[in-house]
């Protein structure tokens, strides 16, 4: 059964809307340039605070003031912050994601790319579930960080999590990693998503190790603090204007 608001090529948003409307019958398949096939369980995108990993909980605890939830997805983080009494705007480039957020009760939403979002200021920019992946490739990171600065109030913060995917490469006895010769950063990954036999166009998604983030932040005149680390090469960082 196809949702009545089905959006061509909005793979992620279509899956969210189906679940929200009680039409969930399958999950999202992903295929990556790392020769990995995986599944994104759609119900997981609607999880409650208690079901979230510790890094996400920590990020939500640190949110303050007026919050912009970048890449909000189904709006689970926005809803939690809204229910805590914070002013939060949920932003996503997916039409279906924003429709889902509205149906779930998120009061303030914006359907656009973050680079097209301007002329507003926030105390917290929130990018969780490897939200910094929207950068696509490392070469574009400075463009995004510099834009993020224009959206921050004085004493504002950027909270983001990511993973160092170095563990996915073969290692030797000295714990060195064999990374194939390439002009690109090893965390630049290409993906295709599939849902209900419809495939997305290939898109880039960035996985960022903390040292590289720290260097990029310095280049954009941002302070970068390691807040916490997870159990599998993941971490939470906080960036503030230097």
CATH class: Alpha Beta
Tell me the CATH architecture: 3-Layer(aba) Sandwich
Task: Describe the largest sheet.
Answer: 7 strands, mixed
User: For the largest beta sheet, what order do the strands appear in spatially?
Assistant: 5-4-3-6-7-14-13
Number of domains: 1
Order of helical and strand elements: HEEHEHEHEEHEEEEEEHEE
Distance between the termini: 52 Å
Task: Describe how the helices and strands are arranged.
Layout: H1 11-20, E1 28-32, E2 37-40, H2 54-62, E3 66-70, H3 76-83, E4 87-92, H4 95-104, E5 109-111, E6 122-127, H5 141-150, E7 152-163, E8 170-171, E9 177-178, E10 188-195, E11 198-199, E12 203-206, H6 210-219, E13 222-229, E14 234-241
Parallel strand pairs: 3-4, 3-6, 4-5, 6-7
Antiparallel strand pairs: 1-2, 1-10, 7-14, 8-9, 10-11, 10-12, 13-14
Q: What does this protein structure show overall?
A:
The chain is an alpha/beta fold and 242 residues long. It has a single domain, classed as Rossmann fold. 24% of the residues lie in helices and 31% in strands. The chain has six helices and 14 strands. The strands form three sheets. The protein has a seven-stranded mixed β-sheet, with helices on both faces. The termini are far apart. The mean pLDDT is 92.
Label this structure with key terms.
seven-stranded mixed β-sheet; 242 residues; 31% strand; alpha/beta; globular; 6 helices; Rossmann fold; five-stranded antiparallel β-sheet
Give a nutshell description of this structure.
With 242 residues, the chain is an alpha/beta fold. The chain is built from six helices and 14 strands. The protein has helices at 11-20, 54-62, 76-83, 95-104, 141-150, 210-219; strands spanning 28-32, 37-40, 66-70, 87-92, 109-111, 122-127, 152-163, 170-171, 177-178, 188-195, 198-199, 203-206, 222-229, 234-241.
């Amino acid at each position: 059964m196809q949702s009545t608001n089905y959006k061509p090529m909005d793979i992620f948003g279509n899956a969210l809307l189906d679940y929200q409307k009680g039409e969930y019958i399958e999950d999202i398949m992903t295929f990556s340039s790392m020769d990995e096939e995986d599944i994104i369980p759609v119900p997981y995108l609607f999880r409650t605070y208690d079901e979230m990993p510790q890094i996400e909980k920590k990020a939500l605890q640190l949110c303050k003031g007026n919050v912009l939830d970048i890449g909000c997805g189904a709006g689970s983080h926005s809803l939690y912050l809204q229910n805590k009494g914070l002013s939060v705007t949920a932003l996503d480039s997916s039409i279906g994601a924003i429709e889902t957020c509205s149906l779930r009760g998120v009061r303030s939403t914006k359907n656009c790319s973050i680079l097209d979002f301007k002329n507003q200021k926030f105390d917290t920019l929130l990018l969780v579930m490897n939200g910094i992946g929207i950068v696509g490739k490392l070469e574009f990171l400075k463009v995004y960080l510099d834009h993020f600065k224009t959206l921050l109030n004085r004493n504002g913060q950027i909270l983001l999590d990511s993973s160092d995917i170095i563990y996915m490469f073969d290692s030797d006895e000295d714990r060195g990693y064999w990374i194939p010769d390439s002009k690109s950063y090893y965390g630049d990954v290409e993906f295709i998503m599939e849902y209900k036999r419809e495939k997305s166009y290939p898109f880039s998604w960035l996985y960022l190790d903390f040292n590289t983030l720290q260097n990029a932040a310095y280049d954009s005149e941002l302070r970068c603090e390691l807040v916490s680390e997870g159990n599998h090469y993941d971490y939470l960082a906080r960036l503030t204007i230097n």
